[in-house]
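If you are new to this repository, start here. Below is one unmodified record pulled from the training split, so you can see the exact layout before writing a loader.
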Amino acid sequence: MTNFIPIFPLGVVVFPGEQLNLHIFEPRYKQLIQDCFSENRSFGIPIVLKNNVSEMGTLVTITEIVQVHEDGKMDIRTRGEKVFRMLELVKTIPDKLYSGAIVHYPTNDERQNSKLTAQVISGIRELHKLIQVTKDFKKTDDELCSYDLAHHAGLSLEEEYELLSLLHESQRLEYLKQHLSKVLPVIAGMESLKERIQLNGHFRELKGFNFDL
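And here is the target side for that same chain:
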């Protein structure tokens, strides 16, 4: 499926199913939000990487305009719907301040892999324990998918974009699993180093070596 959508390029990855709260202050995007909300239309958020608008992004819908300030700025809630690939950027739209794009919605295989999902969830919980972060997922473990987990795995913006570009759930979960397998030993090593530094100068109870063994 191909169609034309207004776009709001941002330096953030929005995953399908994710709720994103935005503060709208630029005139062109205030106009975009007003148009989309009044016409019940969705808009696209392509990712800005290294000052360039990337080809992949997420279609989002406005679920609520929380507040309109006296100066016209807005606080809104949006929800990610589906991944798109930008075919053509339309920088100028007649009578509009914002830009648009012709986009294609690729087939996205979202079939679950319960074994991989469980491994990724376990890895993320271990990561959070190491860095002393408490995060509660809004779904049960059985309901979670890669999109629900991605922001909790410590990915960089570039890595989140790579994950968004993967169109099979098993590929996304494997990507997260491989990332965690690299990150966890490093963080565990840092924690061990921190403990050794903190112990320096303290009285320590150490067991001596037994030469008779």
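Two things worth knowing about this chain: The two ends are 73 Å apart (CA to CA). Helices lie at 27-38, 114-130, 146-149, 157-165, 169-199.
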